Amino acid sequence: MPSSLPTIVAYPTLLAHEESISTHASNSIGAYDVMAWMSYLNSIDDVLDILNDGMHHTQGAGVVGGGKKKEQEHVAHTTTINAGGRTIRISSAMAPGITHTHDTFLREVRRVVQARIVVGERSVGLLPGSYKLWKSHLLFCTRLLEQQQQFTNNKLVKSNWSVREKLDKVDEAKEDQIKLKCNLHRIAPYLLSTTTATSSNNNGDNVKLNLYRYTQSAYERSLVRLHKFPLIWLHYAAFLAIYSPSRNPTEIRSIYDRALVALPASQHDRIWEDYLCWILGILPGGNGGGSGKNGKGGSGCGKDWKVISRRNQHKVKYGFETPLVGQWRKRGWGYNQLQLSNEYYTPTVPIETALRILRRHTLYEPTFREDLATLCITRYSRYGEAASLFLKLINNEGGGGQQFLSTNGTTRHNLWMRFADVCTLHPREAKVAGVDFDGIVRVVLRGQYVLGGGGGGGGGASSKNNGGLGFEVFDSTLVAFGSKDDEENSSNPTAEKSQAISHCLGEMEGTLWTRLAEYHIRSGDFELARSVYEEALDVISRVRDFSLVFDAYVKFEEGVIEALMELMEDGEGEARGGGAKKESLAADNDDLDILLGDSTLHQQQNNETNEGESASADVELAISRVEHLTSLRPLLLNRVLLRQNPHNVGEWLKRSQLYIDLNEATMAVKSLEESLRAVSSRKSVNGSPCTLVLTLVDILEKKQENLDGARKVLEQICAHSEYDFGDATEDLAQCHSTWVELELRQENWDTALKLARSAVSSKVGGKQLSSKAARGLSRSLRLWNLLFDLEESLGTIQTTKDAYDRALELKVATPSHCVNYATFLMDKAYFEESFAAYERGIGLFPFPHAGATLLWKAYLTNFLERYEGTKTSRVRELFDRCLTDCPPEESHEFYLLYGEYEETYGLTKRALGVYERMCNHVPSLEKYTAYRLYIAKAIQYLGVAAARPIYELAISALDDGPASRICLEYAKVETGLREVDRARTVLVYGAQLADPRRDQNYWKAWHEFEVSYGNEETFREMLRVKRSVQAAFSTVNYNAAEMGGGVPKVDTLSEKSALEMIAEREGVEVEKKVLIGGFGRGQKRKVEVADLGEVERRAARLRCATTVEPSASAGGDDEIEIDGNEEEEEQAPQPPPSSSSSVIGVSEKAIPVAVFGALTASGNIDT
Length: 1167
Prior knowledge:
With 1167 residues, the chain is mostly helical. The chain has 57 helices and eight strands. A hairpin with a 2-residue loop joins strand 2 and strand 3.
């Protein structure tokens, strides 16, 4: 204090604070006032700030303002500073008005710093429990040491630049190396020893070392009273980590340990965040990831960074970062510098020390176990410990009985994969750590966790069965298969267990098998690895897993071949290199032969030869092993599909075919026998189970020529019912028929017939079959057809009749069976029994059964062939019975047959009556054909005149379309009889049934008829009727399908629209003329002139044949003119005469002779 008091007295502001603290006023606590001390210390800090700023301006001139306000005033080469109420003028030399030179000013600054330290010590000495005073004092000391470090760094950098300039910039990376080394190891540059250090530098280092020790002592003294304040501990640890010259990690670790002991557990999270940052060298939060060199700083370090960065909770909770993190981030230390240098982080803490600290942290925070395992893999190369940690995470050990939940979002599947990767890549370390990877994986793949369940501590039944390895595979609760009421699943526990394993493992099953095999490969156990691959191919049930395992297996074998080839090449190279040596020793070998004999030398040569042959044999064996494995791939894949669904018949058949392709008929037989034990008829898919039996019998018979074996299989299936077909009677029937056909191929006729008879009787070897499928054999059409064929070929007439009669009694016979039975009897001349068989069949299958038509047709045909014209009454009775019940759709054949019989052997009247009945009974679509046939027969037997009432009946009975066609035929018949008027009447009647838009043939025929046989009036009448009919049909709509593909749809028209449409289609122009009663509107045709050419020629012939008076020819309003440009013209009649007694202005015209035809020649008509 004596040396600091003059300094304080020199500054009025500081003197005032000193006096206020020393005063013992009644209203003041004096030296025990914390706020007074804080104000005092802050004033000294302000003075120091002004003085430090003035140091940077001593090269120029200016004034730095007093107090907290800074002012600069330029006097020639003089700097004026006002600080703490004192004015200081600084110049390079002493002069009037100058208070300090540069050197004296620096000494003045040091004295103020010393005063600040003394005042701080006084304050904490009087108030040792004040957190504010200690914090201000400690931070000032730390900041003072940091300023000294910056000053040394700048000085060191300048010296490096001068050296680089002298060496012509040869060593440009020296400064970067110094900085990198400082940042990489977190060491202050002034702590590095250099060869160019001078005595002054050493003195400066001693000063800074003393300041470091003083600051460390201050921290220790503060913790005597403030050991419950975590921030003091954090600042202390950060101070040691940054400024400690010894760089002793034990010293820093002890500070963190003391803090954890002193502080309550609720504040340990603040300590651990800084502690982990110092241990790992990774700053929490936001620095990103990167990849290092040689794979060391790759995904592992990136994963480390992501793990630690999630623990930056101090800034979130308290609003600021911890002291160590803040200082490192300010200096650019930590993980960022590792990325810039592309080098893996070099820890300053020993690996074992770091691991022990991290293990302690897992006790405080159990979720950190996953991060510790990752660090053991990526940073510390402690793979055994990592495997042990992953296993504990999977087992949920040490988690307080709760299920492990990863804070990084890692799923249990990912944990399993990491655990497998570690154990696979480093099997020896895992074994040393006590991790039995082989046993663990086998327990999982066997599905023992399904029986015992996985628990948090590996307890329960699974722990006992698995040797304490009671782990789970996934987070979700394992599904217990068979918990539902399913008798079929409970009957097959092996399949149930396999399904449970596949369900719980999911896509991980194949990966675990490949990891286990790779584990043994890296351990050097190649044969054990092969056994693992073989076992995997025998148990996996997914195609994806099969592909993984098989590809890995093939790749392993190929690698073995490559290794053996390399060894052979190396051996050949050594042999070639030693050739010269062997030649030099050849002469010595001759002497050795004499001395030792030939046996010893030959034995050595034989050993060398055997080694070469052994190596080549190993290569050939490896190649043959790969070829064999590749050839078995279809079979192995087929086995996987069968494990998915053992009831897949198609896959079993495919498996047997694969063995046949490999010329392994015995294996094909074994696979089919296995399929019969595995496939359930109720669950079978992709085929029928009977195909397995048929294929097995076929292989035994044709491939192995083992008839006894084939008979034995069929006997077990058919006679002993060793395979349950369930309700599939047809499958069992097919097996029986196969047995019969086998005996037939071996020409054992009696045995085949016996087997067929016993099959339909549900008795084999005199034993009644009790299965449901066997009880239905008596109704199997397959077996009955086979029995009928054998009875007709090999049996007697009586046995054949018995077989058919029994089928009819059981009502299993079909119409074809009845026909065959009757045909068989007829061939054997049992005619009446044959007809009786028909009668029984008709009784079983009456109309409307589809088989009744077949039976009646065969019955009637055979009966007519047998008796021909005899037994007419019986024939008529049969036809009447048949036609009474026969549906109309199928009756026409029987009517035709009946009519033909009556025409041949009966009466014409009865025949025509049959045809008449047919016309009334057949469906509407067939009535037109029936009436035509009826008319043809009537004309044939009774003449044309007798057909007229039939025509009339047909016209009245048929629909419009067929009726119009019948009218045309009727008119043609009348025309042939020269009954033109009757024909015209028929055409007029039929015209109302024929729509001109659809039935154009009808109107064309009438047109030709009128042209040939009519006159102008009849032709006009035809046109008038056509128009009226067309108008009547104009309001009728037709579907496009009825009208034809190209006919548009016709809409409903009004009367006026219909008349306009008719005029347009007929080419007639409608003229408005005066209407006279009894006449229609006058119309004039515009088109179809060519069609009236014949009409004009006929009219010309009529004029020539008719005698006409001149006066009459000259006049006459009703004269008809036929013009070449017009088709027809109808003249409107003149108004009636004024007098009723006479007709005036009307000319007379003679009737043409041609109209009367043959009557004119006889002279009976007067023209």
